[in-house]
Design goal:
The chain is an alpha+beta fold and about 260 residues long. Among the domains are: about 50 residues, Uridine Diphospho-n-acetylenolpyruvylglucosamine Reductase, domain 2; about 100 residues, CO dehydrogenase flavoprotein, C-terminal domain (Enolase-like, domain 1, 2-Layer Sandwich). Helices cover about 35% and strands about 25% of the residues. The protein is built from 11 helices and 12 strands. A 5-stranded antiparallel sheet has the order 4-5-8-6-7. A 4-stranded antiparallel sheet has the order 9-10-11-12, sandwiched between helices. Strand 2, helix 2 and strand 3 form a beta-alpha-beta unit. The longest helix is centred in the last third of the chain and has 19 residues. The N and C termini lie far apart (about 50 Å). The mean pLDDT is about 95.
């Protein structure tokens, strides 16, 4: 780990100001960032701790669930309000990593990092959520821009996420047995933003929507509606855990399970 200055601001404005320093990095739950620092794969001049900004908490309105950026996965998983409004979201949070990761990792940190195998991006994209920052609101379709790449500008800070409440939704993942990251994860939703299907863990460019599945489910919400629809292996991940062809097969299998789980 290289030397760096550590700053723990008390307000969002102070945090944004600190992030304006050259080579500054934000620290949320640190589940990805701390290992990267330990391995000397990043050399920030300033680390800005977001823990004291008051960005935790969950609010349910008539048509949305709004979650503060530094709310932990464990808090989302244990929330009775989330479980009532969007049970699929609570279940997703409860399946991230292990207990230690869930009690440290945050929704904002996950979305800012945009790991191609992370779970939360699929929920955000499938539910048509809105990313709220210190300066604007970004739709899910505009936010994800490739592996570890988002629409966030330098120094821009996620403050919360607003999820429209769907009529039906479910998330199923085929997880790596060691890391519990999704080798393939599928989030299906039918709600105010239409019928949407988001795939994580499979694409080389990160999370993506499956247009063919969406069209079939919009016409007939049933697992059988996906019969005969294949997912091209081109552009999918191929690694020591699974080939692109195997992941392409899994996408269809897991999607059917998700539709069945959604009801």
């Amino acid at each position: 780990m290289y030397n760096f200055d550590y700053v723990k601001p008390g307000t969002v404005a102070d945090a944004v100001k600190a992030l304006g320093a050259e080579d500054s990095k934000a620290l949320a739950g640190g589940q990805t960032f701390i290992p990267v620092l330990k391995q000397r794969l990043n050399k920030p001049s300033v680390v800005v701790d977001l823990a004291g900004l008051g960005l935790t908490g969950i609010k349910v309105t008539g048509d949305a669930v709004i979650i503060g950026a530094t709310t932990t996965h464990a808090t989302v998983a244990a929330s009775a309000e989330v479980a009532r409004a969007i049970p699929a979201l609570a279940a997703l949070a409860g399946g991230i990593g292990d207990k230690e990761v869930r009690h440290r990792g945050t929704i904002g940190g996950s979305l800012a990092n945009n790991d191609p195998s992370a779970c939360y991006p699929s929920a955000v994209l499938a539910l048509g959520a809105t990313i709220i920052t210190d300066r604007r609101q970004i739709s899910a379709d505009d936010y994800f821009q490739g592996m570890f790449t988002t629409a966030l500008e330098p120094g821009e800070l996620i403050t919360g996420v607003s999820f429209p409440i769907p009529a039906k939704a479910a998330y199923i993942k085929f997880k790596n047995p060691a890391s519990r990251y999704a080798m393939v994860g599928v989030f299906v939703a039918k709600g105010p933003k239409g019928t949407r299907v988001a795939i994580t863990g499979a694409g080389q460019g990160g999370v993506f929507r499956h247009a063919a599945f969406e069209a079939a489910l919009a016409a007939n919400w049933s697992a059988s509606a996906l019969d005969g629809i294949t997912t091209p292996a081109d552009g999918l991940n191929s690694d020591i855990h699974a080939s692109a062809e195997y992941r392409a097969h899994l996408v269809g299998v897991i999607a059917k399970r998700a539709v069945t789980a959604a009801g």
